[in-house]
Write a structure and sequence with these properties.
The protein has one domain: Alpha-Beta Barrel (TIM Barrel). It contains 14 helices and twelve strands. α1 runs parallel beside α7 and α5 packs parallel to α7. The longest helix has 26 residues.
Amino acid sequence: MTHKHANQLRTVALTLIATVTLVMTSGCAWFKKDTIQPKPSKPSMKEPIRAIWVTRYDYKTADDVRRIIDNCARGGFNTVLFQVRGNGTVSYPSKLEPWAEQFNYESPGYDPLALAIEEAHKRGLMLQAWVNVMPAWKGPDQPGIRNQLYFKHPDWFWYDQSGTRQPLNHTVGGKSRGWYVSLNPCLPEVREYLVAVFHDLVARYDIDGLHMDYIRFPNESVVPGEKIPDYPRDARTLALYHKTTGMNPDQDPAAWKQWRTNQVNQLVADVYRMVQDTRPSAVLSAAVGSVPARGLTHHQDGLRWMTDGIIDQVYLMNYTDSVPKFAQRFAPWMNSESDTAVVPGLGIRQQLEAKHGADIAVAQIDVAVNSVKHFAVFAYSGIFDSNNNVLTRQSDPEHQKRVIRQETILPKIRSLARKR
């Protein structure tokens, strides 16, 4: 046998071993649906979901929170996705993570999450605590406090092949933008930490659900023309991968991609088990890309979560101006043999003329209701005035656009509320 042929056989053998190993180690035993105990009936699943995303930028004071929940109730929504974790900082008192930068890293004198829950339940609304999972800070600047993950656990972040840490600021061709720097879910200690953060939240608050966003690799280009490194390539991750497969990432790119996807799958399974054990009446939901193939480029396999029974609701980030395209993207999710609720998310398109955009939103709500019964609107600040200067401008012309959207979209949602 020639040296060349021996190397070829060795490569084939390693690939076969890796494939078998990946199948055997894709998750713990509870990854299989039939090993998960049936959950009790969940209140938030008894009627069609009419949800709205409220970002962390929408509120500062207690009066802001009260007004937000009141507007959601008056608008005909029955589920509020209330963001309380953005990038390793939180909007509730925690011993694990510091107060959010929106509150200057200190208590605002009240508990936004506790107040939101109280106001929501008072009005008969379900409230899910919305958490960004992977992002642990957002550039272009470093955190303003030292007890933040960026400083406390630098080894938990992404590093490229040369050992360079994921940048806070991205610059290509004169264009610059700060973006999220993320935790590495390939590390068991990172997954354990995230489960602990979410357990603290689920255990202490009477939430109706935990809503996970960025439950994927945020590995997209930040500025046009940018080439993103093949994260993560730190020594510990590579050692874990080699221990599992006997290979390095470049020997079989497909196996390397699948292994990273499996680590995200494992995190979802771990969180699911924790929620089931801690507050079984609460749902676990996730915002997912509406096109499964695109999700996989970010190591997000929402269809797998559904078939394995480790997610209760998937919210499709189905943001398009096209009503037919909006409807077409339901197909793979509806074909899944799963009890998971599929909730199409539609976006209020700021760049469209207000009435035209609002008419598209109403048409998409009709499509969603007729197909899967549920829908969610992104986002609160596209319909209501708020403190949110990050996603929307608060000028008088923009206020008038929101009034038009309210007059067009809210009557449709209220009519659906009356039909329940």
